[in-house]
Amino acid sequence: MAKVLIGISSWADRGLVESKFYPDVVKTPAERLHYYSRKFPVAEIDSSYHHFPMNRELDYWLNNVPDGFVFDVKAFSLFTQHPTLLTSLPRAIKEEFGPEIHAKGNIYWHHLPEKAADSLWSGFARSVEAIRAAGKFGAVMFQFPPWFHPGKDSFDYISHVKQMLRQFQLAVEFRFDAWLNEENRAHAMRFLKERDIALVCVDEPQGFARAFRRWPALLPASVSLDFRDVTPGHGSQKPPVPKKNSGIYTNGMNCRNGYRRSAKWLKRRMNCILFSRTNMPTIR
Fold it and tell me: Is-contact 112 99, C-beta < 8 A?
C-alpha cells in the first residue's frame, strides 16, 4: 500500500493566509511554517525556482518543521529552460562567468558556458543535499514550459538532468499535452519509469487550449499529483470559475470528491506524494 502525503504547495500562499487557516496570533513566516507543518506533512519550496536557496533560508525551513516533514524542491528556472534574469544567478557564477554570458535581460540555458552550467548544477545539488541530510527531502520537481515538446532533444535533456542530480529523486511536470497523447504516452512513461523519475499529474478543468489530459488513464511508477485551482492563468484562455466556497467547479467537477477518488486510485497503484494547490475553505 502506497503512502500518500497531502498538503498545500505553499504555506505562504496569499489565498491560504486570507482564508483564516492561520490563527490571528500566527503572523511571521516562521510561525506560519511552524503551524502549517503541524497540520500537513508536506509542502513545496517554490522560491528555489527563482533563486538558489541561501543558508538562512535552509535554516528557516529545516528548523521550523518536525521530524518526518517533507519538502519537495522546485528546480531553478534555468534548469527547466525558462527565461531567467541574469541577476537571479548566484553571485559567484555572475562574477566568474558574467563576461562570457552574452545576453541582455533574460538568459536561457544555451547562453551558459559549459563550466558555468556545471557549477550551477553543483551548487543546486549542495542546497538540496542539506535538505536530504536533515531527513526532510521528497523530490526535485522540474516544471517544464509549454514549449518543451516531446522529441529527441527533450528526452536527451531529461536524461542529462537525471545524470546531474542522480543522487536525488526527481519528478517532472509537462505543460504540453502531446507528451501523453496516444502517440507519445507509452514511450514517455517507459522512459520515466526506467529512470525512476516521477510524473507530476495535473488535474485541471478540461475544454481549453492548454488543458492537460486527465491523469487516471496513466499508469506511472510514481506520481506527485498537482491539483490545479481553476483560476485564470493559461495564456488568453480563461478556465471556468469555481463557485465561491463550494469546492465545486461550474463544469460539474467536485473537488473534494475528486480528491477522495484520486487518493484511493493512487494508493492501489504507486508510491505517491499528493499535493493540493486548491486552498479550500473547508481545510481547518
Answer: no
Helix (H, G, I), strand (E, B) or coil at 72: strand
Cα separation of 3 and 221, whole Å? 13
Mean pLDDT of 195-219: 65
Segment 65-114, tens digit of pLDDT = 999 999 999 999 999 999 999 889 999 998 888 888 877 778 999 899 99
Given a contact cutoff of 8 angstroms between Cβ atoms, the answer to whether 229 and 200 are in contact is no
Determine, yes or no, domain membership for 282.
Answer: no
33: in domain: yes
Q: In what order do the strands lie in the sheet with 70-74?
A: 4-8, 271-276, 222-227, 197-203, 170-173, 137-143, 70-74, 42-45
Q: In whole numbers, what is the pLDDT of the chain averaged over residues?
A: 79
- Give me the number of domains the chain comprises: 1
Locate 49 and state its grid cell: 525556482
